[in-house]
Design brief:
about 220 residues; 10 helices; about 65% helix
């Protein structure tokens, strides 16, 4: 049991690294949470500072989710709980990282929405299904301009994609653990995006095309 707790703690700390806050403070001498939507995530970084820092933040956030899940799935210790179910271990470690990103201990437990870190976790868990979910995200983003809506629809497409993959290839052998977890992912994203859902319903949700570049003020 102690080994599992250590794994969860390490994954949580990795996920808690507040990438967007670090970037905004070191590069722009401000806190990203004081701009735009107030969210400490890559989307707000893009709207405030531009695509280059947003791309960097996204890559790090994705890595934060991928690393704990991947490592957990390749542990050789038989002493750790769920050692006979590597899928469960990957989910536990990956989700601990997602929670770390969403409720980071380094920023008063107020982080991002967890989309990037969750995507990294899903790359480790569902490498075959994720490209289809990414396509759903891209199509939604192009047609609506809403990152939040694209994220939720992409997550909702995951369990459907797994069902289709099993139908096409019965030898895909997707475990029950992964199938059940794929149903929970959309619920988590809907929960973390509940404020976005309200804005979508009243027509005030931010759209991608309205992104603007932050102009840093300097004293001369």
């Amino acid at each position: 049991m102690i080994e599992l707790l250590i794994l969860i703690l390490i994954a949580y700390v990795i996920g808690s690294v507040p990438t967007s806050i670090i970037v905004s403070r070191t590069m722009y001498k401000t806190d990203i949470r004081e701009h735009g939507s107030g969210n400490a995530g890559a989307t707000n970084i893009f709207r405030t500072f531009g695509w280059k820092p947003a791309l960097f933040v996204t890559m790090i956030d994705v890595f934060k989710g991928w690393l704990p899940a991947y490592v957990a799935g390749h542990l050789n210790s038989e002493a750790i709980l769920f050692a006979n179910n590597p899928d469960a271990l990957m989910i536990i470690a990956g989700f601990a990282a997602v929670l770390g990103h969403t409720y980071t201990v380094f920023a008063g437990f107020k982080g991002g929405k967890g989309v990037g870190t969750l995507a990294g976790m899903l790359i480790a868990l569902f490498p075959i299904a994720l490209p289809i979910c990414l396509l759903v995200f891209i199509i939604t983003l192009i047609t609506t301009g809403m990152v939040s809506l694209g994220s939720m629809l992409a997550a909702s497409a995951l369990p459907i994609t797994l069902f289709i993959i099993e139908g096409i290839n019965p030898e895909a052998q997707i475990s029950l653990t992964l199938r059940v977890f794929s149903l929970l992912i959309p619920l988590f994203l809907i929960f973390t995006h509940r404020s976005n859902i309200k804005r979508i319903m009243d027509g005030s949700e931010n759209r991608f095309e309205k992104a603007r570049i932050f102009k840093k003020k300097t004293e001369e």
